[in-house]
Amino acid sequence: MELEKVKSAFRPVVESSKGAFSKVKKFCVKNLNLKNFKLDIKQLKKLNLHKLSIKIVNKKRFAMTVGTISLALILIMYVYFSGIAYAVSINGNELGKVRNKKQVEDLLLQVKEEYKKQYNAEISTGSQITYIKTRASNKELLSSATLEDAMREDVTYTIQSFSISANDSTIAAFKTKEEADKVLEQIKAAYVKEEEKAQYKEITFAEKVEVKQEFNEEDKIMQAEAAASFILKGTNEVKIHKVQEGESIWGISRKYNISMDDLQKANPSIDPSKIKIDQEINLLVPKPLVSVKTTEVAEYKENIPFEEKTELSSSLYKDQSSVKVKGVYGERDVVAEIVKINGIEESRNVISEKIIKEPKTQVVVKGTKELPPKKGTGTFTMPTRGRLSSRFGSRWGSTHEGIDLAAPIGTTVNAADGGVVIWVGTNGSYGKLIKIDHGAGYVSYYGHLSKYFVQKGDKVYKGQKIAAVGNTGRSTGPHLHFEIRKSGKPVNPLNYVK
Ligand SMILES: [Zn+2]
């Protein structure tokens, strides 16, 4: 119908004008309420209007077309968008695919809420959850049960808590600030002797120690009871030695191959010279996470060492000396400020001192006399001071080959004449024995000794200290057995001594 109208109304226009096309178009749009149409311009030019072919798309047809296209587009978009998914990763480990992020976020929130109730504290996530846009079919998606498990197992939740930090690094965490503060007090108390508390001027930490509110993982949050010991030792390990009878701290040090310094660090309150049976010695050298610094003012008595003066004397040989006046320690009262780190003295600053008793100088006399020649002189002296307790010769049916001089153990034994030491050592019934060869066939024996002061091969002078009286070998009491042999045959020493 519309086509007929166009044909009849625009016949003259189309015949007369080359611009007919646009005019026809304009008319159609305006008067016939058409949205669009197509005019075959070649046919229009031939002016054969009967055969003129005008394609008119009326409103209804247009709407249908748009509808069809839209439907097709929606279908394409649906197919496209329905394939979109996200690959979920926790701390960089890919877990699987989900259709939307909200599913993950909702589960995370749900678990967080559970923990929030359980711990009665704010909960934060310590893991990083990332998404990468991808495509997946429904079959490839994570099941919500798997996803929920992952939210519990793979995600780290942190709990609002209170950390103790030393020099800005966290060393322990607690649920409450009160617990953290209490632990710090316990640590300080470990290095404060209660009975000397009044002496302390300051008790503090060597490091910058702070209590901060932080989110920490559950297993990092400690129980206050065990925390002080852990922080003081740097470990929860325990290694103890119980003192046995006859043991010393030095013996324990060697037994476990721990230096005395380390043992002291592990046992700051133990006096090494006063350990008792069954006392527990800590064998783990502490590596404290914080160091307690105490400053105390101590008052104590102290010995003042004595000086030593030497006097010379021509009545003693050059290798001899004797104490003429024994030195005596003085004494002073000292007030000092002592700084200790974990119970070990770091510095001591003497504030005042008062001398109660001056020390007494020790006087030592040193000999200047030239040593006599270290060879036999042909005459002998008595080798020690002592009572003649047994003579040379027959004694209860046998022969006593020397003389016995009774003297206390430790009494000096001198060489009866100069010569060369030819024997130092134990010899049967003689016990500890020295023999000196004086030349000209004379050899002297000194038996039952307790100590030797010469070695085999030494040259000695007449009267030189060679040994100490003892009670070794076959002997009924402390004495020196003195023998002189001439060409191997024992002779009566009393006949040779002058
Ligand atoms: Zn004898």
Overview in brief:
By secondary structure, the chain is of the alpha+beta class. The longest helix is centred in the first third of the chain and has 23 residues, at 59-81. The model is unreliable at 47-54 (pLDDT under 50).
Describe the structure.
The protein folds into six domains: 2-79, no CATH class; 84-155, no CATH class; 161-233, no CATH class; 240-264 and 272-283, no CATH class; 293-367, Resuscitation-promoting factor rpfb (Resuscitation-promoting factor rpfb fold), CATH 2.20.230.10; 387-495, Glucose Permease (Domain IIA) (Distorted Sandwich), CATH 2.70.70.10. It contains ten helices and 31 strands. Strands 19, 22, 24, 25, 26, 28, 30 and 31 form an eight-stranded antiparallel β-sheet that branches. Strands 5, 7, 8 and 10 form a four-stranded antiparallel β-sheet that branches. It has a four-stranded antiparallel β-sheet with strand order 9-13-16-17, with no helix packed on it. Helix 1 packs antiparallel against helix 2 (20-31) and helix 5 crosses helix 6 (144-153). The N and C termini lie far apart (175 Å). Bound molecules: zinc ion. Zinc ion (ZN) binds next to loops.
